[in-house]
Amino acid sequence: MSALNYDEIFEEWRKVYLTGDYEDWSVVIEEGINKDFAAIALFLDNKTAKASGESTDYYDGFKKASLQVLDLLEILITEEPEEKIIRITKKESTRVRDQKLAKEIWG
Questions:
Q1: How far apart are CA 28 and CA 32, in angstroms?
Q2: What's the distance, Cα to Cα, between the start and end of the chain in Å?
Q3: Helices H, strands E: what count in the chain?
Q4: Is 39 helix (H, G, I), strand (E, B) or coil?
Q5: What are phi and psi of 32, to 5 degrees?
Q6: Which helix (H) or strand (E) holds 23?
Q7: Are 68 and 93 in contact (CB under 8 A)?
Q8: In 10 A of CB 74, how many CB atoms?
Q9: DSSP string across 4-58
C-alpha cells in the first residue's frame, strides 16, 4: 500500500468544501488524531459528496459505509459555525461503546 498524502487529499477536499460561504473556514485536526486517519476521513467525506449525484440507493449505501469506517477509526468531522472551523475529532466507536455497555449490564 502506498503512503497516504494528507496534503494532496486535503487539497482535493478543500476544492469541494472550502468555497463560497466556507471560503474563510479552517480545518483543525485535534491532537492525537493520526494524520493518515484524518486523510481517510477527508477522502471519504469528499467521495460521499460526489456520490450524492448518483442514485439515492448508491448514495445512501456509500454514506452508510463511510460512516462505518469513520466509526471504526473513531473519528468525527464536526462544524463549529461561530468559529468557522471544521474539526476532525476523536469519538468513541459504537463497537467500544457497546462493549462497555455489555460489561456494565452483564459484568
A1: 12
A2: 41
A3: 4, 3
A4: helix
A5: 95, -10
A6: none
A7: no
A8: 17
A9: P-HHHHHHHHHHHHSSGGGTT-EEEEPTT--HHHHHHHHHHHHHHHHHTTS-HHH
CA distances from 18 to 7, 12, 32, 63, 88 (A): 15, 10, 24, 20, 15
Comparing CA positions, the residue from 82, 5, 77, 90 lying closest to residue 48 is 77
Closest CA to 46 of 66, 26, 25: 66
Burial class of residue 11 (count of CB atoms within 10 Å of its CB; 0-12, 13-18, 19+): exposed
pLDDT in tens, the chain (107 residues): 567 899 999 999 999 899 999 999 999 999 999 999 999 999 998 888 877 777 777 778 888 888 899 999 999 999 999 999 999 999 988 888 878 888 888 87
pTM: 0.80
At 18, list the grid cell: 472550502
